[in-house]
Amino acid sequence: MNNIEKLNHIHKLGDECAILRKAVTVNLGQTILDISAVMSGVIGSGGKILIAGNGGSAADASHFAGEMIVRLSSDKNRQSLPAIALCVDPAVMTAAANDYGYERIFSSQVEGLGNKGDMLFVMSTSGNSANIIKAVQVAKEQGMITVGLLGSTGGKLVKMVDRALVIPHPSTQRIQEEHICIIHLLVSLVESDLI
User: Fold this and answer.
1) Distance separating alpha carbons of residues 158 and 40, to the nearest angstrom
2) Using CB atoms within 10 A of its CB, is residue 4 exposed (0-12), middle (13-18) or buried (19+)?
3) Strands 145-151 and 83-85
4) Higher pLDDT, 11 or 70
């Protein structure tokens, strides 16, 4: 591929991303508002948000927790908002994987850290990750609110979580790009509710 072909490829991807972003904000705007209101309610009631994902979604989970704990914008100082990324403690994750199997790396943490009225916020581009499914099952048993930021068709999780936000696209990269945009929108909306 020569430079002109590469530039055309970049422009094509940019156009595709812009079209998807517009579709997401138009079609999913109300769902984003609803989820942010539930998040604000959980925090306002003294609860916390546990966040889980695999691979790129694990990085997004960590990013999400960081923006909740610290802040979204450098021009806005505020109190920390209670959020825990369940994918950042290698000792816990590897112990759970070793002792119980990879399927329990998140559910073991939900069992130990989650309380009734807390939220489990999961991210999965397929909606079919076994360890995320198990975490949602445990969260429901504990009386937690469950939210899924999903991709493609939403997979099995779309019917399991209390609220789902699905990016209906076949590309993992495009789904993850929209997920991070939605994370930023959610944190911004929660900040506006609570600060």
Assistant:
1) 22
2) exposed
3) unpaired
4) 70
Q: Which residues contact 121 (CB under 8 A, 6 or more apart)?
A: 39, 49, 50, 51, 52, 64, 147, 149
Residues 94 and 88: beta-carbon distance below 8 Å: no
Q: What angle do CA 38, 43, 47 make, to 5 degrees?
A: 105
Helix axes 172-194, 56-69, angle to 10 degrees: 10
pTM for the model: 0.91
With 0-12 CB in 10 A as exposed, 13-18 as middle and 19+ as buried, what is 99? exposed
For the chain, the domains span 3-194
CA distance 126 to 157: 9
Closest alpha carbon to 114 in 88, 90, 146, 87: 146
Q: Are 38 and 147 in contact (CB under 8 A)?
A: yes
DSSP letters for 2-63:
-HHHHHHHHHHHHHHHHHHHHHHHHHHHHHHHHHHHHHHHHHHTT--EEEEESTHHHHHHHH
pLDDT at 71: 85
Q: What is the pLDDT of residues 51-110, one digit of tens each?
A: 999 999 999 999 999 999 998 876 778 899 999 999 999 999 999 999 999 999 999 999
Which one of 3.30.300.20, 3.90.79.10, 3.40.50.10490, 2.60.40.3880 gives the CATH number of domain 3-194?
Answer: 3.40.50.10490
